[in-house]
Amino acid sequence: MKHLTRRHFLAGSASLAGLAVTGCASTGKAPIPLSPAEDPANLAMYRAMPEERFPLPAVDLKKVPERFFRQQVDYPTSERVGTLVVDTNNYYLYLVQEQGKAMRYGVGLGRAGFEWSGRARIARKAAWPKWTPPEEMIAREPELEQWSWRNGGMPPGLQNPLGARALYIFQGNKDTLYRVHGTMEYWTIGSAVSSGCVRLINQDIIDLYSRVPDGSPIVVL
Fold first, then answer.
1. 75-103 burial, b for 16+ CB within 10 Å, e for fewer?
2. Could you give the CA distance from residue 109 to residue 192 in angstroms, rounded to a whole number?
3. Per-residue pLDDT tens for 93-142?
């Protein structure tokens, strides 16, 4: 058996020191954190959707404030699970979930979105719906007559103001003419523009559409 000499000990110590200096030592540089617009989870949530009837492009998340990204949040409320709650003051739509949670979506509001409030229900849903402007809107904007009910409405597509999905709000058996719908103009989320009801990013309305059955209650505050 060989004895451990002082020379062997020093040589071994030097080798260990070399390892510490090379492979095992930290460079001292912290990783650069990703912005919310670069987060892979957010990019996946707002990805392009080529599988849709009218293929949707990805959302440029740099044009949407982070607080309006779809997310599950704490939301204690007396409203029952499955209720939609539109908070017009803060530009949010909540889908009430169990255990004090809600799925929260950012919304944009138009003139119609501010005019109506109260309790109603989602009477029906439509994927890639037609759009028929109401007579009052046509009176303000006569060029919309081409899309009136008399002319069959505007066919579905990327330019249709109702976007990829629409939820139709009824009180009793009466159509309120208000809609929760998608929009290609995602940079308007969190703001008010001249027309429209309650609009979501198309990727968000597709998600909401999949969670909300006909007959679901809706409250507009």
1. beeeeeeebbbbebeebbbbbbbeeebbb
2. 5
3. 999 999 999 999 999 998 665 667 899 999 999 999 999 988 888 898 89
Q: Which helix (H) or strand (E) holds 210?
A: helix 202-211
Q: How many CA atoms lie within 13 A of 179 on its CB side?
A: 27
Helices first, then strands: H and E counts in the chain: 5, 10
Question: pLDDT, tens digit, for every residue of 54-95?
Answer: 999 999 999 999 999 999 999 999 999 999 999 999 999 999
7 forms bridges with which residues in the sheet? Answer: none
Give residue 49's identity as a one-letter amino acid code: M
Contact present, 151 and 133 (Cβ < 8 Å): no
Contact 103, 211 (CB under 8 A): yes
The dihedrals phi and psi of 163, each to the nearest 5 degrees, come to: 70, -150
The rounded distance, in Å, linking the Cα atoms of 192 and 136 is 19
Residue recorded with tokens 């001292």: 28
